[in-house]
Design goal:
globular, 146 residues, single chain
Amino acid sequence: MRNITRTLDRLRPIAPLAVRVTVGIIFLWHGIDKFDTGISNVEGAFDGWGVPVPGLTAPFTAVLEIVAGAALIIGLGTRVAAAALAALMVGSILFVRAENGLIAEGGAELDLALLVASLTLVATGPGILSADQALGWDRPSEPSPA
């Protein structure tokens, strides 16, 4: 078991990279989709869900998902982008998903997974192959000593 753990520990620096790029793609796609759907349609949905100031929050949400999603993909300002997206997911869970429960149509499972993944990036940083690392803004996590 110890050998397996040591072998898997070598993969530890890759984990934030995988989470960062995957979560970034998901948010980027959702932001683009809000514009493709039509911001006025998104505003109407936000209004129906009781999201405050839907005329402001709908376009803000779409732009944040695009900008912060792209930032995660390239690893630029990773911790700040991830924190902003985590806050967005808290709002989504509270205003949109809470009444549907966790596992149901329209449930909070995806939002909860994205919240936890975003908070993981806040805690771990960008990992390897990031603009943050290249600029010296953040260093990748290193495996803990065995």
